[in-house]
Amino acid sequence: MRPELAAPEPVQEATPAPEVRKTPKTEDSKRPEEPKPELGDVREVNGIEYIYAKNKRYLTNPYEPMYVWIRINMDTSGTLRSQRGGEGG
User: Which member of 40, 41, 63, 89 has the lowest number of beta carbons within 10 Å of its beta carbon?
Assistant: First the structure.
């Protein structure tokens, strides 16, 4: 008998996927929560000071955040000058 005329093989039903068990999170895996930065906050990373200031490119691109961390020497918004009483930075 030719293979084309043979009875089709029975279709096997799909077996359900095995359940994935998630391991419970331990307290060690939690990162300590940092407080939300406020306008004018200063942070030092690897010896470079950054200030939390208004983003110059906000609203020019739909994905730009309103406030960002900017190097203090690049800040032109006056945020640092207004905090220090006008002496500049």
Answer: 63
Which tens digits make up the pLDDT trace of 26-56? 666 677 787 888 988 999 999 999 999 988 8
Beta bridge partners, 50, equal 43, 71
Rounded CA-CA distance 58/82 in Å is 21
Domain extent, residue 63, equals 36-83
Largest interatomic CA distance in the chain: 98
pLDDT tens for residues 11-28?
777 676 677 667 666 666
d(CA 63, CA 44): 26
